[in-house]
Design brief:
The protein is mainly alpha-helical. It is built from 20 helices and no strands. The longest helix is centred in the middle third of the chain and has 31 residues. It starts with a helix and ends in a 15-residue tail after the last helix.
Length: about 475
Amino acid sequence: MDKESEERPYEQRYSVLLSIMLGSIMGPIDASIVNVILPTITQFFGVPISTAQWVPMIYLLTISSLLLLYGRLGDILGYKRVYLVGLAGFIITSGLCGLSPTINWLILFRAIQGLSAGMMTAVPYAIITGSFPPEERGKALGINAISVSVGLAIGPSLGGLVTSLSSWRFVFLINIPIGIAGLLWAYYIIPELKGQPGKMDLWGALAAFVSLFSFLFFINSLQSLGLNYALGIVLSVAMIAAISFLWVESRTAQPMVNLNLFGNITFSFANISALLNFMSQYVMVFLTPFYLQRVLHYTPKNVGLIMTSFPLAVMAVAPFSGSLSDRIGTKVPACFGAGVCAVSLFLMSELPASASPLAVVWRLALFGLGTGIFQSPNNSAVMGSAPRPHLGIASGILATVRNLGMVFGIATGGAALYAFAPPSILQKASLKPLEAAVFLSGLKYAYIVGGISTLIAAVTTLIRGNNHSAHCGFRIPD
């Protein structure tokens, strides 16, 4: 890349950022809508929670299994190309999800949607990091968090409103006009940025996909099926594939993942913190709508309005947190934010069967406050510790651990419910007082598990430093 092309992204950096934000808003809208309308979908198709849970789960499974591949493809082919193809595919599959005749078709289309969403999710951090100078990176990532927060804020209210006025099917069609606008803008404004050109590590990509998908399938199925011979085979496949992946990557001249990246203390522990924080977040966003609808008997519209308090709080503080981390470093704000999230979840675990809307709203807003303070500095720490030629795979790794956290959050939240509440209660759309008490016993421990995970995230944030160049003796070539 010549000097002129290196400077051009900096000159257009805010236009690039806005185009990424327009495309990035769709994923959060889609995720938050599905979480809010999941009880409605469960009731519409007459299926148990364990089946409906695959609607968000399969989407996250396919994304999580392929983000590393897409990140490396961005380094090789260009981040713009990977992003645009993924965005176009997401638009098409959104329409297919809205036309699903059965729950099985919906799960299938969500799986295909995840294939496209992975492409547009893997490289935005690389595009933003490559388009901004280091002294503005935290600010840019904080501003980008606004699009995620707006999507999460719009999704619950919009999903609840559309479901109340019409049908849950129409919530998927919202992505189409937004996606087309984002696709056209991104095509004209995003510069051609590449990382480290080379060949694709197909064996490494295959091993990573098999390992991640098998392991996540095992985690999700364990809660409903229990440990049996078939799941034992799945876990064995995941472990063998993981060992094979490490073996291939350590011996390949051009690996899909440069393992030396993990020799960087900041990179490794910031990713661990992201994993734990997103796990706690999805314990909350997956289970709280069921509490609101089945215990407090709120309509989908009211559920959406209440859930909006979380992303609105994120949106209010994320840009300022990112700018602050540019000046004082990333460790202190990220640690404080993770701690606030833990306090919020411990308070959520004390919610009774007769809580007022305000009691739920301020707890959700407190979690959003902590999330907004944590995410921008932590993301800046991850991307700032990666050399420029490896921005694509670094972005893919960060997106992978984020989605792994989401999957673990849904799985552990569901496991806590099934540990304390029988399926006969969980399948009911509305619970009587005694049934609500049983439901709340599982919900309480699920929130506590989420609180502990993000509390550990605060600790791992303290372990790492602000020095982005500390590599524990390893050197990552530029």
